[in-house]
Amino acid sequence: MSAQQASRKATNLSLDAELVREARAHGVNISQAAEAGVRRAVADARAEQWRRDNAVAVASSNRWVEENGLPLDRHRQF
Questions:
Q1: Measuring CA to CA, how many Å separate 54 from each of 42, 46, 58?
Q2: 27, 54, 75, 77: least CB-packed within 10 angstroms?
Q3: Which residue, among 8, 5, 64, has the nearest Cα to 35 in the 3D structure?
C-alpha cells in the first residue's frame, strides 16, 4: 500500500444522480473531482476565517495608511 493510499479515507457522498451520470459519461473521476471541490471549499473557509480573525488589524493598518500615507511612498518611482 502506498503512502497516498494509506492517508485516504473512504467516504459516502450523496450527489445529484444526473450530475453523476453526466460525470461518468464524460470520464470524470468522481472521487478526484469531489476531493478537489472539498479542498477548494476548505481553502475558501480558511481564507474567510483569516479575514474575520484579522479584520481589526487590517482596518487599523488601512486607517494608518489613509492618515499617514504609505511609509516608503517618497521612494516610489511611479
A1: 18, 12, 6
A2: 77
A3: 8
